[in-house]
């Protein structure tokens, strides 16, 4: 079930996280169901972002525990994983940058050009999540989560060694504190008259606790804490979360208001699926699901390119293909196109670029004289504490 740097069920799970977000984005534009309970689940699809952040923490902690990887090598690896597709989608979505030049006066033009410059700087540096006021421009409403991931990536080498050196009791307390903090944002918005806004939903520092929970969950897994990981418990947790979302659904604001139940449930399921002895874990490890998981980053990143043109040209499309007036048929067609586009992007852009970047910059660093005294410190050489 496990490769050296991959846990197959978790690779497969990535696709379902991306799929949930896609269904959410389709549903809020073209409702997929009138059923109250199903609507409540679909309308909370943004909690798929929590799954992404927790899963990233878990997978990276698994990969880099007991690793002699240098900080430089680690950053190159992360860059090669995310930036090629990120850059591709940024370029492809330039027609929707959304900056209005107004009347064309000198003031309006200067203002517009300044906006464009700031958008370019934020997107090139992948820091747009720190500026939610930009989310209605360009691809920032979709790419903000990549910015959160980048922030977490930079911190992992400093967080992971600290966490692997604390005992299970303190690790559990830290995990509980992170769950509580991540839930407080949405809960406070529900309880107080002046609700929190998207600043608290998207700014990376407020999503960092979810990433840390993923790291803690992985450490528990690596230490052999695998009790109560059977298939019955998996099904119980999934059904409990589903029923909770059916009933509570949109009553909690900002999506992260559900984190009190969503975050620990995800953390447990990641540990349980990683054990790999259940039917669900085996399903997630199947060849087709793992392949979908491998293209899931492209799947998530390219959604904008499918959905936004549909929004703009929906009436024209429906006029020519009346069947697409049915939201479910429209969703299936969009899904198939997105999967196809994601497969092409993965095999012809993402993977070749990743391999080239690593070959170009990783091997260059390794190829040094044997008597060289210049060494990059291995920041990720981490013993797993039992």
TrEMBL record:
Protein name: Peptidoglycan/LPS O-acetylase OafA/YrhL, contains acyltransferase and SGNH-hydrolase domains
Species per Swiss-Prot/TrEMBL record: Pseudomonas arsenicoxydans
InterPro entries: Acyl_transf_3_dom (IPR002656), Acyltransferase_3 (IPR050879)
Region (Disordered): 367-386
An example Gene Ontology biological process: lipopolysaccharide biosynthetic process
Compositional bias of kind Polar residues: 370-386
Keywords: Acyltransferase, Hydrolase, Membrane, Transferase, Transmembrane, Transmembrane helix
Gene Ontology terms, MF aspect: acyltransferase activity, transferring groups other than amino-acyl groups; hydrolase activity
Record lineage: Bacteria, Pseudomonadati, Pseudomonadota, Gammaproteobacteria, Pseudomonadales
Ranges of residues in domain Acyltransferase: 10-338
Signal peptide region: none
Keyword Cytoplasm included in the entry's annotation: no
TM regions (residue ranges): 12-32, 44-62, 82-101, 113-131, 172-192, 204-223, 235-254, 260-281, 288-309, 329-349
Gene Ontology CC terms: membrane
Any matching Pfam family: Acyl_transf_3
């Amino acid at each position: 079930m496990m490769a050296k740097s991959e846990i197959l069920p978790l690779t497969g799970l990535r696709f379902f996280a991306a799929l949930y977000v896609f269904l959410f984005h389709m549903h809020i534009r073209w409702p997929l169901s009138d059923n109250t309970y199903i609507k409540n689940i679909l309308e909370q699809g943004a909690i798929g972002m929590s799954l992404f952040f927790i899963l990233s923490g878990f997978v990276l902690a698994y990969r880099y525990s007991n690793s002699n990887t240098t900080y430089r090598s680690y950053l190159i690896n992360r860059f090669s994983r995310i930036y090629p597709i990120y850059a591709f989608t940024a370029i492809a979505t330039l027609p929707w940058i959304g900056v209005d030049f107004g009347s064309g006066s000198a003031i309006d033009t200067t203002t517009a050009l300044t906006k464009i410059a700031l958008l370019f700087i934020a997107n090139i540096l992948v820091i747009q999540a720190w500026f939610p006021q930009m989310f209605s421009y360009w691809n920032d409403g979709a790419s903000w989560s990549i910015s959160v991931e980048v922030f977490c990536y930079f911190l992992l080498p400093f967080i992971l060694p600290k966490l692997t050196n604390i005992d299970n009791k303190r690790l559990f307390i830290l995990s509980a504190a992170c769950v509580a903090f991540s839930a407080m944002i949405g809960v406070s918005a529900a309880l107080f008259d002046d609700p929190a806004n998207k600043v608290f939903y998207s700014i990376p520092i407020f999503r960092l606790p979810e990433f840390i929970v993923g790291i803690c969950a992985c450490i528990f897994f690596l230490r052999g804490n695998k009790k109560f990981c059977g298939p019955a418990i998996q099904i119980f947790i999934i059904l409990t979360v589903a029923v909770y979302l059916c009933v509570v659904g949109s009553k909690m604001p900002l999506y992260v208001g559900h984190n009190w139940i969503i975050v620990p449930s995800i953390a447990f399921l990641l540990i349980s699926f990683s054990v790999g002895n259940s039917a669900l874990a085996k399903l997630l490890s199947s060849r087709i699901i793992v392949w979908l998981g491998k293209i899931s980053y492209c799947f998530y990143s390219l959604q904008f390119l499918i959905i936004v043109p549909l929004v703009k040209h929906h009436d024209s499309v429906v006029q020519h293909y009346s069947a697409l007036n049915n939201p479910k048929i429209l969703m299936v067609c969009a899904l198939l196109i997105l999967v196809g586009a994601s497969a092409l992007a993965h095999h012809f852009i993402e993977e070749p670029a990743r391999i080239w970047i690593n070959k170009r910059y990783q091997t260059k660093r390794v190829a040094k004289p044997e008597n060289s005294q210049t060494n990059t410190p291995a920041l990720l050489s981490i013993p797993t504490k039992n």
